[in-house]
């Protein structure tokens, strides 16, 4: 299991010299996975610990003064994902006013060389760091030659003709709800995670009981109906939490509705994230309080208003049939 350490508390968490990678790692997309894979490979060759340095908040959010910014990951998911990818230690650097003034040479010498005893460093080809982003690949190459540091520069991963980035994936999910394309860039279906809570039970009355996900603290896809899978946690032990970087065969096929359910005519309705499980038998109220992961694989349609509940029920049946076809369920 990954060990998470705040940089301010770092006394030397690593027991031996380390292979280090640095980044925001929001979503741990294919580009991030290229970096972590290279880091793990170097560590195995050189008998090093693997270390990922991350920032909270991310530097862009600090400088743009973005608060409560919806991201692809919660901090807990990021840590789990890095652990799943083979990282031994995650060092979280608080990005505040004082740290923003630390120069690239100061950070390199104090943290990378002295604290972490880095013998290898893996960064992306667009990596910049330090005050005014003056630290770059050329600086690292020059220092690596002097210090005997094994430096590896990860090339960009492209989807179509554009670079895969967390920003691009966030826009894809938020603006178009194209979770299929997002999954191709993430290397996995997009995951929302939270606790199942009691709703108003209208789905049950319609004959399509739903599991309502509570507060998720993540970027929510565009309103609409989706197909995908649900992971139910029978306990909240770390070993039983939803896998982040892969889709387990233990998941349950489902359709999801994200929206305000306009056909029900409620005044000031909240946005809900609901799942209708397509396989299995579940006793009434048996899912309340369970931690769950909702994995989105296909967008089926926009949310829309139906003239009556019979039309709504007919559409839900059509959505379920379409989802079964897309997910390969007979």
Low-confidence region ranges: none
Question: What is the percentage of strand-forming residues?
Answer: 25-35%
First-to-last CA distance: 38 Å
Radius of gyration: 22 Å
CATH fold category name of the largest domain: Elongation Factor Tu (Ef-tu), domain 3
Assign the CATH superfamily of the largest domain.
Riboflavin kinase-like
Number of E-state strands: 14
Helix and strand pattern: EEHEHHEHHEHEEEHHEHEEEEEH
- In the CATH hierarchy, the architecture of the largest domain is Beta Barrel
* Helix content percent band: 25-40%
CATH class of the largest domain: Mainly Beta
Which descriptors would you attach to this protein?
31% helix, Rossmann fold, alpha/beta, 10 helices, Elongation Factor Tu (Ef-tu), domain 3, 14 strands, six-stranded antiparallel barrel, 2 domains
List the helices and strands and how they pair.
Blueprint: E1 3-6, E2 18-22, H1 30-46, E3 49-56, H2 59-63, H3 75-84, E4 89-94, H4 97-100, H5 104-115, E5 118-124, H6 137-147, E6 150-154, E7 158-159, E8 162-163, H7 166-176, H8 179-186, E9 190-197, H9 202-206, E10 211-213, E11 224-233, E12 252-259, E13 272-277, E14 291-301, H10 309-327
Parallel strand pairs: 1-4, 2-3, 2-5, 3-4, 5-6
Antiparallel strand pairs: 7-8, 9-10, 9-14, 10-13, 11-12, 11-14, 12-13
Helix pairs in contact: 7-8
């Amino acid at each position: 299991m990954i060990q998470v350490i705040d940089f301010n508390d770092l006394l030397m968490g690593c027991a031996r010299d380390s292979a280090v990678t640095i980044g925001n790692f929001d979503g741990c997309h294919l580009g991030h996975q290229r970096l972590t894979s290279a880091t793990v490979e170097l560590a195995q060759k050189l008998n090093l610990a693997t270390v990922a340095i991350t920032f909270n908040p991310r530097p862009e959010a600090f400088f743009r003064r973005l608060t409560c910014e919806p991201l692809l990951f919660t901090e807990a998911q990021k840590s789990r994902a890095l652990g799943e990818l083979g990282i031994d230690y995650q060092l979280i650097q608080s990005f505040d006013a004082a740290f923003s003034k630390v120069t690239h040479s100061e950070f390199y010498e104090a943290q990378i060389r002295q604290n972490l005893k880095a013998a290898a460093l893996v960064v992306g080809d667009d990596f910049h760091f330090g005050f005014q982003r003056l630290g770059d690949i050329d600086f690292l190459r020059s220092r690596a030659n002097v210090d005997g540091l094994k430096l590896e520069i990860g090339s960009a991963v492209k989807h179509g003709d554009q670079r895969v980035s967390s920003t691009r994936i966030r826009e894809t999910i938020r603006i178009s709800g194209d979770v299929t394309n997002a999954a191709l860039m993430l290397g996995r279906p997009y995951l929302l995670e939270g606790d199942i809570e009691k709703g108003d039970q209208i789905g049950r009355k319609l004959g399509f009981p739903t599991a309502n996900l509570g507060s998720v603290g993540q970027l929510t896809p565009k309103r609409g109906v989706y197909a995908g899978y649900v992971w139910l946690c029978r306990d909240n032990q770390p070993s039983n939490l939803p896998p982040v970087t892969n889709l387990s065969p233990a998941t349950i096929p489902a359709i999801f509705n994200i929206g305000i359910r306009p056909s029900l005519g409620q005044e000031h309705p909240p946005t809900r994230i609901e799942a209708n499980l397509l396989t299995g038998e579940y006793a009434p109220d048996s899912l309340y309080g369970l931690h769950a992961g909702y994995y989105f694989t296909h967008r089926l349609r926009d949310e829309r208003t139906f003239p009556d509940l019979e039309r709504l029920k007919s559409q839900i049946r059509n959505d379920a049939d379409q989802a079964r076809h897309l997910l390969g369920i007979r």
